[in-house]
Amino acid sequence: MDSCPGAIERTVVDTSGRVGSLYDASRDLLLKNSSVKSFDNPQFTPHSKCYTLPGGESNGVINLLKAIEFDDALLQSILLGIVEPLGISSFINYNRPINENTRFLYYSYKHREEMLNVIAGQADKIIPFTPHMNNATHLITRIIWGFEILCVIQNLNDQSADSIERLLYNISGQLQNCDKSLELTEREKRQLEELSNVTILGSEECVDNSNIPLLTVLDRIRGWQHHTSFHVPIHYTLYPLKELYKNQQSLKLYHFSDQDNLSIAKIEPIMMHLNGYFNDLKQMFKNLPKNLTNSKVDKWLKDIPGQLNLLSDLYEEFKSKLQNILVDVRLGTRQSIEINNIICAERYSSLRKPATDVFYDEAQQWLAKIKLIKRFNDDKITYTNVFDIHNQSIYLTFEEIDEVLKDYCSKQHGSAILWYSSDRLKREKTDEWEQIYQQLTSERQSATSKSFLIYVDFTRYHQ
Q1: pLDDT tens for residues 421-459?
Q2: Calpha distance 187→407 (Å, rounded)
Q3: Do residues 147 and 230 lie in contact, with contact meaning Cβ atoms separated by under 8 Å?
Q4: What are the strands, taking DSSP E only, across 167-212?
Q5: What's the pLDDT band for 283 if we cut at 50, 70, 90?
Q6: Which of 149, 137, 115, 139 lies closest to 44, judged by CA?
Q7: Domain limits at 383?
Q8: Residue where a domain terminates, one of 197, 219, 244
């Protein structure tokens, strides 16, 4: 069919769409309740596309996805959690550093095309208009089938990065020709086998494990080309229902002004920062020591998880509000200025820099302290905070505090070795701190009578 106003193209995330399926472009969601079995399968010449990209500031996650033809609107929907990222789009959650020693290899194979031949205003002759179409904005009128792969190669040194880049250019040059098998020398195969830090993303029918070796993927491409069971929709063309069905009530996308586009563009960097930030925090808290009990762990240590929960709830609320506003702005029922209002709201100030940096630093300190206390427990060292023994509101000199601590510990533990320290001392003089640790534990073991080794934490003490 001829092009018409409002037609849109989408790189496929949800591969369950078929020709005639309904689509809500305000949310970038596929509605699976309509399709047709009779459509054109026009003459289509299979072809491949393959290229190599370097890492670095210009090729971060978003820029790379745009380079492989992900639409801005679709990326916004993924970032806000309206659309679940699958296949290559899951790269948006990639939270490892991308730098000048990162390399990307992207490959797509387009095998066939399916198309619905329908005339604007006369679609009801093929698909009768039904009430459930009121929830959709577009209809899938064309699908390109095939598969695609994205390989992320990390942690190359300067020398190997250049060598691997040359090899990848050779590979991408060969893979452009879908009629010819990839030919690699034994040396090139060894180079690929030696790559230990590779992530593979792609059509789930092909890639069911992101840790699959790169050489294995390259060896299988030829087979995937010839077996259509591995092929999925990789590109949709969608036509607006308003154009296909005359005099019917259906949703229509609003045409953005330049100011609308500027407001909506603010979502991308904010959500990239926050999504990466909370992913990092989740990873940080993922491997906490189990069954760690210490009745004298200070209040600060107990507060951090609670603060994280509150911050996570606020983040979900912020994201939900942006989701709702963006959908309504796309439909023209709200103004884009509301996006700015939410982003700038005082309620969400803790989600902006530098507040997020401050909390991240505190969380890192908290995790380091938890691990330190676990180490003390394992080595039978008693951890205590100076505040557990001395109320800071009562001013004392350090000598007086020393006397208070010694008196307290002698009454509580009898013979005791006191070790006064702080996080700053441990951080800035790590080697010296470790030497003291080994020395004191040795002294305790060699003591003729049983002695307690007590670590007194002065981290948050200010005189």
Answers
A1: 888 888 899 999 999 999 988 888 877 667 788 888 888
A2: 71
A3: yes
A4: 198-202
A5: confident
A6: 115
A7: 379-457
A8: 244
